[in-house]
Design goal:
The complex is a heterotrimer. By secondary structure, chain A is an all-alpha fold. Chain A has helices at about 5-15, 25-55, 55-65, 70-100, 105-115, 120-135, 140-145, 155-165, 165-180, 185-190, 195-225, 225-235, 245-250, 255-285. Chain A contains 14 helices and no strands. In chain A, helix 3 (about 55-65) packs across helix 14. The chains are: A mainly alpha, B mainly alpha, C alpha+beta.
């Protein structure tokens, strides 16, 4: 039997008291509305992706995936993620360290600036790099003279991806590290650890799940980004096409099976992300800052 | 060794024994400047160098105005729809216990995780006249794909998690005592919900609306497939930027982007003001 | 309004939070439900309010069976532990809420509601704060608004759940006195829950002492303090010392000696002696007394608390001595309780 001192309080929360529930009919109605809405707006699109991808059988699906340009797109997408995620990871940790562990003037402003890319249209995120490195920009002629190609090539795609995924790790870690305070670090320093040792042995273990969570979201966006990448990529098949861009090209060529085959790979990736994300939230909810919402 | 007496007055940073401030802040600022600030200020600088007359001509061009109207209008409608249904979804997820609740809860984040282009082609297939939804709606005379209604559908998909995830924690925090208090004072369930609970949720709902709206205004990938992209009818502002870029009309692209940014910031500013006012009052 | 709780049992997930509780409350009484956490006092209050439904038993308001009335119909004023004020409403709107949600036939006019609200604000001494929001009030002020809001619906019973629990000591004492005044002025039947015995004893007409889902004792402050009817009440209310004793031939014995206390009504056997540490007489000679050596001594305000080892150190008991008493470490002290009670040992 449970501890009689504690049990009634627990029981009280389990049993919604009479005053705080809807009538069964109202409950059923609300649940129906919610489920119907989610089914139509979330579930159906997801189902359609897989249904279309396999509409001509698994053979057609595999053929579409195995196509040369598709494989090139998958490789490019992975490459872009492999470069941009670590960059934003390092930035996220550094920014969170500076913001969460210290008090300085302009901190709130800096935090706002980090969130800036979230409020900018992806197309504009791409546009700013076109304006910066394009032929008509100040840098353009100089870049051309030195044979440096950024736009309509991999560097441009990476830059645009870094821009749109910029805040993910930082905004996950900042509230988490702020909540954890500086006590552990001060203790480690007082015991003779140097700065790096303190970070590796004390701070990093404390934030690892939050960090992983941020990386997961950052990676999902990096692999799926469309608008920003579309503007800077130049859409050269097999060269500067990421998977989402390849989906567009195939779709516009009326190659539905091909488009949805590639799309289903991305959707599978999204599902894996959701599962991992949910597992992290369930198991390490307390160690992940509660910043669901982006 | 002496510690300097605490000086009153301006100080950039509070003293701390923790190392690494210079390194981490320096790196963060440099990275932020390179990746975000320089490119964004490049946009503003470009736009400023346009000159007032040119800028005004582009801004008042009928196609630009229409595209902006469509972007902001559809984003507004979609965010409003999400406010209603997102709040219901959040309520059901927090208050009711049913099998599969965790799965459904996790699924709400699908629009965050699913690449926008994938959502775009899926929605288009779904709502095209031959699609599952489209064929149901066609006999009713409702056309979704290749119309502004299609844009709204795509933006509902994109914006839903913003509303649910902002409102959900606030519903979780509702003090049951408050509901019980309303009941002891004689309020029926309907009165409790609409007079007591919803006003308390208002700030979160406004925030969710703002986030969904801001995202919707800038959304590109999920919209362009389903929109049909007819100038003056279903052409969104981000697409017009892309079109101008492809025409090498950098001036127009820059101007439209600047207007979009300015309008978005203005809206967010207004919503922030409303929020800080309600927060001040209700604590 | 009289309130009668008749053989009420309440289970949560089959765990009994209240076991067969009966209680009669007279109209206009101020009653305290006192007990440690988990004793069922809040559950009893919520049952009376209608926030919970009893598993068994009936609750009467006057002659009317209220058990099947919904909470809205019961017309009780409930003041919640954390006040549960509506944050987005002004003080006046909070107080007027119960009147505004009435069906239109019974709803007073807006002017009337406003008048009632400011009347009640006068009563709770917060005149002029109509336009404030709860966030702009102190804890004590919020408490008063919560009370005014509960009284606005002209409740048949006023129920308060730990009404002073969230306030600091100074405000607590003030509000306590003030609540008594309000009660005397308005005459509402009032029931409040508390775990603070001082609060219960000072404020209530009668105190209901509860433990583990049962009522241990019902009585005035004097009754529950001077003649506790169970070991629990002895231990819970006021300070008490206890010693294992034996009852033989109507006498109380410690080890092999009678200690000069007669207990003719008790049957022979193992028992426990309870007394208040300050309610003792010191004896010079011991023929029929409790004697022990001083094991520890500490100064508590105006008196000295001494721990005595009785019977070679197997038992320890605490008594109060005057500060000037010469008792030192290891010295021997003999005493006899003036007021005491012996409870037979409960057979487990």
């Amino acid at each position: 039997m449970a501890d009689p001192e504690l049990y009634p309080a627990d029981a009280y929360h389990e049993h919604a008291s009479l005053a705080v529930t809807e009538r069964p009919l109202a409950r059923a109605g609300l649940m129906f509305v919610a489920f119907a809405f989610l089914a139509i707006f979330l579930l159906l699109p997801l189902v359609v992706v897989f249904e279309q991808a396999f509409s001509r059988g698994i053979g057609a699906f595999l053929e579409a995936i195995n196509e040369h340009d598709t494989i090139a797109a998958i490789k490019l997408t992975l490459l872009v993620a492999v470069i941009s995620v670590p960059l934003n990871l390092v930035f996220g940790v550094a920014a969170a360290w500076a913001i969460a562990k210290f008090e300085f003037k302009g901190k709130a402003f800096l935090t706002t600036l980090i969130d800036l890319p979230f409020s900018v249209s992806p197309v504009i995120s791409g546009l700013v790099y076109v304006l910066l490195f394009g032929a008509s920009s100040l840098l353009g002629p100089w870049l051309k003279m030195h044979g440096i190609v950024i736009l309509f090539a991999v560097p441009g795609i990476v830059l645009a991806t870094v821009f749109v995924t910029f805040p993910f790790v930082a905004r996950e870690l900042i509230p988490l590290m702020q909540e954890q305070g500086t006590g552990d670090e001060e203790a480690a320093l007082s015991l003779g650890a140097n700065g790096w040792q303190t970070f590796w042995h004390v701070t990093l273990p404390n934030i690892k799940w939050g960090l992983l969570y941020g990386v997961l979201l950052c990676n999902a966006r990096a692999m799926g980004e469309f608008g920003a990448v579309s503007v800077v990529s130049g859409h050269i098949r097999g060269m500067t096409n990421t998977m989402p861009l390849h989906v567009e090209i195939l779709y516009n060529e009326y190659n539905a099976v091909g488009a949805f085959a590639v799309a289903s790979v991305l959707a599978g990736l999204a599902l894996v992300t959701l599962v991992l994300k949910t597992l992290l939230e369930l198991r390490y909810g307390a160690e992940i800052a509660a910043t669901r919402g982006h | 060794m002496t510690t300097a007496p605490a000086k009153a007055g301006w100080r950039f940073r509070q003293p701390s024994v923790i190392p690494g401030f210079g390194l981490t802040l320096g790196f963060s600022l440099a990275y932020l400047t390179l990746i975000i600030l320089i490119p964004l200020s490049g946009l503003v600088w470009r736009s400023a160098s346009l000159g007032w007359t040119d800028f005004w001509a582009i801004a008042t061009d009928r196609r630009t105005v229409k595209a902006l109207e469509i972007s902001f209008g559809t984003a507004f409608i979609a965010a409003a729809v999400n406010v209603v249904f997102g709040t219901i979804v959040a309520w059901v997820l927090v208050r009711y216990r049913f099998p599969g609740r965790r799965v459904i809860d996790a699924m709400v984040d699908l629009p965050f995780a699913l690449p926008t282009a994938v959502a775009g082609i899926a929605l288009t297939t779904l709502y095209s006249p031959k699609g599952w939804m489209g064929s149901l709606l066609a006999p009713l005379g409702i056309k979704v794909a290749y119309t502004p209604l299609g844009i709204v559908i795509a933006l509902i998909f994109i914006g839903l998690p913003f509303v649910v995830r902002t409102v959900q924690p606030i519903i979780e925090e509702i003090d049951k005592e408050v509901e019980e208090a309303a009941a002891t004072l004689g309020a029926n369930r309907f009165q409790t919900i609409f007079r007591v609970l919803f006003p308390g949720l208002a700030p979160a709902v406004i925030t969710g609306f703002a986030l969904a709206f801001a995202r919707g205004v800038g959304e590109y990938g999920s919209v362009i497939f389903i929109a049909g992209n007819l100038p003056y009818i279903s052409e969104i502002a981000p697409l017009l930027i892309v079109i101008r870029l492809e025409e090498y009309d950098y001036a127009a692209a820059t101007a439209i982007a600047t207007i979009m940014l300015a309008l978005s910031f203005l809206m967010l500013l207004i919503i922030n003001l409303i929020q800080s006012r309600t927060r001040k009052r209700y604590g | 309004m009289e309130v009668r709780v008749s053989n009420v049992r309440k289970e949560f997930d089959r765990f009994p939070a209240l076991r067969d509780v009966s209680l009669d409350i007279k109209s206009g009484e101020l009653i305290a439900l006192l007990g440690p956490s988990g004793s069922g006092k809040t559950t009893l209050l919520r049952l009376i309010a209608g926030l919970e439904r009893p598993t068994r038993g009936t609750i009467f308001f006057g002659d009317e069976d209220a058990s099947n009335r919904t909470i809205q119909e019961r017309n009780v004023g409930f003041v919640f532990q954390h006040y549960a004020l509506f944050r987005h409403m002004t003080v006046a709107d909070n107080i007027g809420f119960g009147l505004k949600v009435r069906p239109s036939a019974k709803r007073p006019t807006r002017a009337e509601i406003r008048r009632r609200a400011s009347e009640l604000l006068d009563l709770v001494q917060l005149s002029g704060l109509e336009k404030r929001y709860p966030a702009q009030l102190s804890g004590g002020q919020r408490q008063r608004v919560a009370l005014a809001r509960a009284m606005a619906i002209e409740p048949r019973v006023l129920l308060l759940d730990e009404p002073f629990g969230a306030l600091d000591a100074q405000v607590r004492r003030e509000l306590r006195r003030w609540l008594r005044e309000i009660h005397d002025a308005t005459g509402h039947t009032t029931i409040f829950v508390t775990h603070d015995q001082e609060e219960a004893l000072e404020l209530a007409d009668r105190v209901v002492v509860m433990s583990q889902g049962r009522i241990e004792q019902i009585g005035t402050a004097d009754e529950v303090y001077d003649t506790p009817n169970s070991p629990f009440v002895y231990g819970f209310i006021g300070e008490s010392s206890s010693l294992p004793v034996k009852v033989e031939d109507g006498q109380v014995w410690i080890a092999d000696r009678p200690i000069g206390l007669a207990a003719p009504e008790l049957t022979d056997g193992e028992a426990t002696l309870y007394f208040r540490p300050h309610d003792i007489e010191l004896l010079d000679e011991c023929n029929g007394c409790i004697a022990g050596t001083v094991a520890a001594s500490r100064r508590v305000a105006g008196t000295r608390r001494v721990e005595l080892e009785i019977g070679g150190g197997r038992e320890r008991v605490e008594i109060e001595l005057p500060v000037g008493h010469p008792a030192a470490q290891k010295s021997r002290v003999a005493f006899r309780p003036k007021r005491w009670k012996v409870f037979p040992k409960v057979v487990e």
